[in-house]
Write a structure and sequence with these properties.
The chain has helices spanning about 5, 35-40, 70-80, 170-175; strands at about 50-55, 60-65, 95, 100, 130-135, 145-150, 160-170, 195. It is of the alpha+beta class. It has one domain (about 5-20, about 35-200): Cyclophilin-like (Cyclophilin, Beta Barrel).
């Protein structure tokens, strides 16, 4: 089963017209400091700068990141998140009992942001709620696509860069529409409503 993640990552595009990168220039709605503080506090994260709020159609998911274990991946994910890259992207590949994958601007598993990341394999295991980077056969081919594990997947340990974990809202991840067939491609897939750094709320 370990081949599953590699199989979907073939034919990646080097430089793509990616979705949302120009969104960094959009103006944020004004919000009072008190309201912003209350919003951040409700998510109860260890470090708001290294935590993400993933809004799904069924509810909010909090992901706490591991900058000590995967510093370059965490930095790049935050850069893409702040540019609005992930907003509206599809969970194009979802395998029941395994994982839900997203982060392709085309919704097919063939695209990325155009910037490859050097592998930062670490000792963190792939458990239920683990967030890890998808990649092609080349260990240094991770870009923008990532997956969230529905269950433990020990065969992936040390082979993919683990950069975060779901600390609340896993029940909403469980509701993501599943794919069919061995590769888990999804017809009319669910989307990321929005993905934000908690510190920016």
């Amino acid at each position: 089963m370990a081949h599953l993640l590699k199989k979907s990552e073939t034919a990646r595009i080097g430089k793509a017209d990616t979705k949302g990168l120009a969104a960094a220039d959009t103006k944020k709605l004004t919000k009072s400091a008190t309201r912003a503080k209350k919003e951040k506090a409700q998510y109860q994260v260890r470090n708001a700068e290294n935590a993400l709020l993933l809004r799904l159609k069924n509810g909010d998911v909090v992901i706490e990141m591991f900058p000590d274990d995967a510093p370059e991946h965490v930095a790049r994910i935050k850069e893409l998140v702040r540019a609005g890259f992930y907003n509206g992207l599809k969970f194009h590949r979802v395998i029941d009992g395994f994982m839900a994958q997203t982060g392709c601007p085309y919704g097919t598993g063939t695209g990325g942001s155009g910037k490859k990341l050097k592998a930062e394999f670490n000792r963190r295991p792939h458990l239920r709620g683990t967030v890890s980077m998808a990649r092609a056969m080349d260990p240094d081919s991770a870009d923008s696509q990532f997956f969230i594990c529905f269950a433990e997947a020990p065969w992936l340990n040390g082979q993919y860069t683990v950069w975060g974990e779901v600390t609340s809202g896993m029940e909403y991840v469980d509701m993501i529409k599943r794919g069919t067939g061995a590769n888990g491609m999804v017809a009319e897939p669910d989307e990321i409503v929005s993905l934000s750094v908690v510190a920016d709320l």
